[in-house]
């Protein structure tokens, strides 16, 4: 299938606006926020006003109704300036707004989507548990019907936006005897009685994003907050991840791009053996490989995004894009830090933060190993 990578006029205007915002408002405080582990609520407010937090929500609910390719370009821009804000943006758009827009009843959409689309509220996605990560079907959290409510018990781990979000898409077992078909999806408000958020995780990277456990102790939510139908939860979660992985691929592309910019600038400045280190062929080859892999990662992400709404192979391609882009970004940050020599190990240099921030991209929203399992399964079934 041919894909048009040329940006439309509308895309160009939007992306140059996002890039200006990212460079003027987001990048300048990124190091300080990382040092202080500070979630930048004020910047998220500005992003909400710009429509960056409801891009995948339909226009009838106040969202942007943005196509996935344009959305990926916007995530790339924000992530190149601050990967922590990149993941906050990606999660609220892709794993909260998107599935609610797709699977909720009109009444539930009307209650939730306008608040997400305007940026008034952030969202999260509660799938992982202490005992179930890659094997999501092994979750233990339960939801039982009690009159006009669902009552949820369990614990979710590593939830992005847990401490700052107002709405969570949450997966729980509604029929323990039905295995993977006994899991349902819910929209859970953060202020549901019986819901408690743990202390923020002390993370290796993405320290200006919020990640915490969510504890559910008889948490009560309205019966109408069921997403889709009972028993469809795992299907909804997997469809959501098939789509949302594009956002993580785009986040990886943004980090990769920034690592290359930093390495190129440093290689031109740093003098060793009487010449800028960029004059040494070993350094040139590193830069060339980083640039080539960046182009490949961006093209694969753009291609996967372009067919994400309709292609039969959309899920597999999103896995390929996510696995490739995240691993290429990790290689790029490793090489960019190498080019910085000892200075790369100093927090004075931005590459040190990127090196920490990039690490999780091969892990969350499905590890590289799980991406390969999905890709191989699709190949072998063909
Ligand atoms: C910063 C951060 C933010 C996160 N945000 C969220 C969030 O918002 N919502 C959410 O639900 N979760 C979130 N997560 C959790 C994340 O999605 C999981 O960590 C991830 O899915 C992996 O699960 P796990 O950590 O339990 O690893 P495990 O599943 O225990 O895997 C450990 C290792 O074993 C490998 N492995 C497991 N099974 C197989 C297999 N069958 N074949 C080969 N290898 C295998 C894995 O690839 C991995 O290398 C976040 C995690 C982090 C670190």
What count of helical segments does DSSP give? 11
Structural class by SSE content: alpha+beta
Radius of gyration: 21 Å
Main beta sheet: 4 strands, mixed
User: Order of strands across the widest beta sheet?
Assistant: 1-4-5-8
Could you explain how this protein is built, in words?
The structure is a single chain. With 382 residues, the protein is of the alpha+beta class. It has 3 domains: 9-121, Butyryl-Coa Dehydrogenase, subunit A, domain 1, CATH 1.10.540.10; 124-232, Butyryl-CoA Dehydrogenase, subunit A, domain 2; 235-381, Butyryl-CoA Dehydrogenase, subunit A, domain 3 (Up-down Bundle). It is 51% helix and 15% strand. The chain contains 11 helices and 10 strands. It has helices spanning 9-26, 30-36, 41-49, 68-81, 83-103, 106-117, 233-269, 281-307, 314-340, 350-357, 368-381; strands spanning 123-126, 142-146, 149-160, 167-173, 183-189, 195-197, 211-222, 226-227, 271-272, 275-276. The strands form 3 sheets. A 4-stranded mixed beta sheet has the order 1-4-5-8. Strands 2-3-7-6 form a 4-stranded antiparallel beta sheet, covered by helices on one side. It has a two-stranded antiparallel ribbon with strand order 9-10. Strand 9 and strand 10 (275-276) form a beta hairpin. Helix 7 runs antiparallel to helix 8 (281-307). The longest helix is centred in the middle third of the chain and has 37 residues, at 233-269. It starts with 8 loop residues before the first helix and ends with a helix. Residues 91, 124-128, 133-134, 158-160, 203, 206, 211, 360, 363-367, 369-370 line the site of flavin-adenine dinucleotide.
């Amino acid at each position: 299938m041919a894909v048009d990578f040329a940006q439309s006029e509308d895309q160009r205007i939007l992306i140059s606006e996002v890039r200006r915002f990212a460079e003027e408002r987001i990048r300048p405080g990124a190091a300080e926020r990382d040092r202080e582990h500070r979630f930048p609520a004020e910047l998220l407010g500005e992003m909400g006003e710009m429509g960056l937090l409801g891009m995948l929500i339909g226009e009838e609910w106040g969202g942007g109704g943005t196509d996935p390719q344009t959305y990926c370009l916007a995530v790339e821009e924000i992530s190149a300036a601050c990967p922590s804000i990149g993941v906050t943006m990606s999660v609220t758009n892709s794993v909260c707004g998107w599935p609610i827009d797709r699977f909720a009843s009109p009444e539930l959409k009307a209650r939730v989507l306008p608040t997400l689309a305007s940026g008034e509220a952030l969202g999260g996605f509660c799938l992982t548990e202490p005992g179930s990560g890659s094997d999501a079907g092994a979750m233990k959290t339960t939801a039982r019907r009690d009159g006009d409510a669902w009552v949820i018990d369990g614990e979710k781990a590593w939830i992005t936006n847990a401490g700052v979000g107002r709405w969570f898409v949450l997966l729980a077992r509604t029929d323990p005897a039905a295995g993977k078909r006994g899991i349902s999806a819910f929209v859970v408000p953060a202020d549901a009685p019986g819901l408690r958020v743990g202390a923020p995780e002390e993370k290796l990277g993405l320290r200006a994003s919020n990640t915490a456990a969510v504890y559910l102790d008889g948490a009560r939510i309205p019966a109408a907050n069921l997403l889709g139908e009972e028993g469809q939860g795992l299907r909804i979660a997997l469809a959501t991840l098939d789509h949302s992985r594009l956002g993580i691929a785009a986040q990886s592309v943004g980090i990769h791009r920034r690592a290359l910019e930093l390495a190129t600038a440093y290689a031109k400045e740093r003098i060793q053996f009487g010449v800028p280190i960029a004059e040494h062929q070993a350094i040139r080859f590193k830069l060339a490989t980083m640039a080539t892999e960046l182009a490949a990662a961006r093209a694969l992400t753009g291609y996967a995004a372009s067919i994400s709404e309709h292609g039969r192979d959309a899920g597999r391609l999103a896995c390929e894009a996510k696995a490739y882009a995240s691993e290429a970004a990790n290689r790029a940050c490793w090489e960019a830090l190498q080019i910085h020599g000892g200075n790369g190990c100093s927090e004075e240099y931005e590459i040190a933060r990127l090196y920490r921030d990039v690490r999780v991209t091969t892990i969350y929203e499905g590890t590289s190993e799980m991406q390969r399992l999905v890709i191989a399964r699709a190949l072998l079934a063909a």
